[in-house]
Amino acid sequence: MPRFDELSQAEQEERLERLARKALVAYRLEGARIRRMRASRNAVYEVCDELNGRYVLRISSPSCDGDNLTREILWLSALRRETSLAVPEPILGHTGELRQHVAMRGVPGFRWCTLYQWVGGEPHRGAWTEAHLALAGAFLAALHRHATSFCWPPEVDPRRLDAAAVEALVEAPILRRACAGEELEILRAFGVCVRRAVADADERGDMSGVIHSELGRGHFLFDREKVGAVGFEDCRWGPFLYDLSGVWDELRGVDGAEELRCSLLHGYASVRPLPQDAERLLAVFSGFRALLRLVRAAQRAELDLSVGRRLGKDPQVRAALTGVLQRAHGCGGGPVGATGVVG
User: Could you say which of 6, 55, 204, 264 would form a disulfide bridge with 2 (CB–CB 3.0 to 4.6 Å)?
Assistant: First the structure.
């Protein structure tokens, strides 16, 4: 039998669909209609059952950490119990389990499978509007308001976006292979700025907690004057403004960016106060997101054997590096401005 990664796309999808149907047995939904949804690192299916309604089944990638799923499920369950926010509700299997470890002949390894109640609404596919951004800002503020009082149980070790995580990324070996010496010094100086911003959020007490961490255009769902969100699998402990920086960064360079960003901040502030230096910190965290994109671009490029020792000349790597350096200079991350962050 050929290896899974040697199969055609259609053959892979056929096997994953059989795995999805096997997973649905645990929810007594084996007769439901299923449809593969957007492409991602996970296999995601819309599940429609005439009697029980509409759900989303996620078959996590082989690299998925079961502990990540536990964190996600516990937070989403608390959000559904304690708020009116439109987020996915984890569904219990008929044996009482919130996650299933499923295997299928022809699909390598075991896959974590989870079922969630469907969240209504659609992604906003056009240009951002002030109205949409005000809704997004208010949603994030409500999410963070809940997060200030939420903690995972002691036995659940949270992933953290802290000073140690920032330093580990800045000192990642792949950056030394992708960047020249002067570029590395700029990135390291910028790393100092990010570590200070993270530490500052922790010291303020009410500016850190559980965050979505990847919330952007593709994760918001709008239904007229209502907004919800999906994609919580990368949740962790970190600065609240890091969450806000995802949307903030998407507005970089677009027409009317200043007005749009004001709408985002006003929407947030209508629910929860922002610190006076919010824009300064958002610029720093926006730069850190660009650094993450650089690392991912370098990792993808390094998988291409044709790049070889020319990793630092790969076009996508260079483009990502340029984005980081621009943000680093704007935040005081250059060699001269490394002593602080400017607005």
Answer: 6
pLDDT in tens, 194-209: 999 999 998 888 999 9
H or E element in which residue 115 lies? strand 107-117
d(CA 183, CA 319): 13
Q: Is the confidence at residue 343, as pLDDT, over 50?
A: no
Residues 85 and 160 in one domain: no
Q: Do residue 50 and residue 191 come from a single domain?
A: no
Span 127-175, pLDDT tens digits: 999 999 999 999 999 999 999 999 999 888 889 999 999 999 999 999 9
Q: Select from 269, 207, 266, 192 the least CA-distant residue to 242.
A: 207
Dig out the tokens for 59 from the structure. 């078959």
Do 155 and 236 fall into the same domain? yes
Asked whether residue 109 falls in the same domain as residue 141, the answer is no
| Residue where one domain finishes, among candidates 58, 93, 117 | 117
The CATH number of residue 202's host domain is 3.90.1200.10
In a domain, 168, yes or no: yes
Which residues is 99 bridged to in the sheet? Answer: none
Instruction: Assess if residue 338 is contained within a domain.
Output: no
Looking at residue 113, its pLDDT comes to 92
- Dihedral angle, C-alpha 85, 86, 87, 91, nearest 10 °: 110
Phi and psi based region of residue 122 (left: phi greater than 0; alpha: psi -120 to 50; beta: remaining):
beta
> What mean pLDDT is reported for the chain?
89
The verdict on 175 and 214 lying in the same domain is yes
Q: Using DSSP, state whether 44 is helix, strand or coil.
A: strand
